[in-house]
Design brief:
Blueprint: H1 3-12, H2 22-62, E1 65-69, E2 81-82, H3 85-92, E3 97-112, E4 115-124, H4 131-134, E5 137-140, E6 153-157, H5 158-164, E7 171-176, E8 182-192, H6 197-200, E9 203-207, H7 208-214, E10 221-222, E11 224-229, H8 235-247, E12 257-261, H9 262-265, H10 267-305, H11 307-315, H12 320-356, H13 363-366, H14 377-399, H15 407-412
Parallel strand pairs: 4-9, 6-8
Antiparallel strand pairs: 1-11, 1-12, 2-10, 3-4, 3-7, 3-11, 5-8, 7-8
Length: about 425
């Protein structure tokens, strides 16, 4: 029979009036541990949710990797490259590549009545993956591009449609500042909204062949290839492999190609979400400190309330290490109960936010109108394990006070 565990259980379930001081303090400590866990759980879920949502939206607009002319800067008026079917096939055979699509961009000015708005026309082909934009359609539909003739259908954002006061079926006139100046008439096919203000205020999706015609390009010339990957984390490895295929050599026309990642094209966005990790670590450390203080104060109260018992056990021949075990068992029980309560509260909050989007945000500032949450099971297990290990280590410090208690003074302690 484990005597120390037996004594700890008797103290834990004791209804003695002598616990009038420690009992409320113990409940406050349990509640403190639970709240600390909820804060850490929600912090991780929010950070992971934001990072996943922002990465998904930026990637949906611009893809994970882009192959373009080495001489091109980050302007939307690009230098063309020739379509190389062998290079495209080689890229498609990389295991982490989801799809490869052609694109071309050109800035222009949209005019409807007396209203003007600057925009970037992004020309895409029939191989374009519409899944992201289709999931964000507000009204209408995505354009349909046939093989035989150019389509005049365009997809615009809700932001642009509100500025120009147009709807699906209405006409747009787009003017291009070049020599000579040109104008094209398009028909609005659908309206999308992603809440990424920088993108929604800018991009209009059109048939790639319009951009080729406006730039006087040949049918086999484009701004570049967009490459979508199966997993965001595979960007560095895939970038290196694609560079070895197309970037480490000159093309037949003497053009040099470059491979740029989404982080390089939109560094301000990824620098912003990179700050989330720093904030997360600050919150986790602070909550660990709070939990540690709760455990220390709770254990000290338990020890002071049981000084007589400690002195009596010492006179009966109990070793200090055995008495310490009693209080460590007690504190461990409170920690586990606090974690259980914290897990329940955290999962309830997580479910409500995940399902009903209870907490909203300013979409102009955060690119989304609600707080996204996402957490994996292994992160929950790791968080619980870290709290148990750290608090157990913290327990060893105040429990050492027991060895300094003298039996005679302890028995007389009142």
């Amino acid at each position: 029979m484990n005597v120390t565990l037996f004594i700890a259980r008797r103290i834990l379930f004791s209804q003695s009036k002598s616990r009038r001081i420690s009992k409320p303090i113990t409940w406050f400590n349990i509640l403190g541990i639970a709240i600390s866990f909820v804060v850490m759980f929600i912090s991780i879920a929010v950070v992971m949710g934001f990072k996943q949502e922002i990465k998904y939206k930026v990637s949906g607009f611009s893809s994970h990797l882009v192959v373009s002319n080495y001489d091109a800067n980050y302007s939307f008026e690009t230098n063309p490259i020739y379509i190389n079917k062998n290079d495209i096939e080689a890229i498609r055979h990389i295991s982490t590549v989801k799809n490869v699509q052609l694109f071309a961009t050109k800035p222009g000015i949209i005019k409807v009545g007396n209203i003007l708005h600057g925009a970037v026309l992004k020309g895409v082909y029939k191989d374009f993956d519409w899944s992201f934009l289709r999931s964000h359609i507000v009204t209408g539909k995505v354009p349909t591009f046939a093989d035989s003739t150019k389509s005049n259908e365009v997809l615009i954002s809700k932001k642009i449609s509100n500025i120009l006061a147009v709807k699906p079926g209405d006409a747009l006139y787009v003017y291009f500042i070049q020599d000579p100046p040109r104008m094209r008439k398009f028909i609005v096919s659908g309206i999308y909204e992603t809440m990424m203000e920088d993108f929604d205020n800018m991009f209009v999706f059109v048939d790639l062949r319009h951009i080729q015609k406006l730039n006087d390009w040949q049918p086999n010339q484009v701004s570049g290839y967009e490459i979508n990957l199966k997993h965001f984390d595979s960007i560095p490895a895939a970038r290196q492999m694609i560079y070895s295929l197309v970037g480490a050599k000159f093309q037949n026309d003497g053009t040099k190609l470059k491979v740029s990642s989404i982080q390089e094209r939109y560094p301000y966005i990824f620098d912003w979400i990179g700050l989330f990790d720093t904030n997360l670590w600050v919150i986790l450390i602070l909550m660990m400190i709070v939990s540690g203080f709760n455990i220390i104060s709770g254990l000290l109260v338990l020890v002071l309330e049981r000084v007589n018992m400690i002195g009596l056990l010492k006179t009966m021949g109990f070793y200090d290490s055995n008495i310490r075990k009693i209080f460590i068992y007690l504190s461990s029980a409170y920690i586990l109960f606090g974690l259980l309560l914290g897990n329940i509260l955290a999962y309830v909050a997580y479910y409500l936010q995940k399902t009903y989007h209870v907490v909203s945000l300013n979409k102009a500032s955060y690119y989304i109108d609600y707080v996204p949450v996402q957490i994996e099971w292994w992160q929950v297990v790791l968080l619980n394990s870290a709290i148990v290990v750290i608090t157990f280590i913290i327990l060893l410090v105040p429990s050492s006070l027991i060895s300094r208690i003298e039996p005679i003074k302890a028995i007389k302690f009142d």
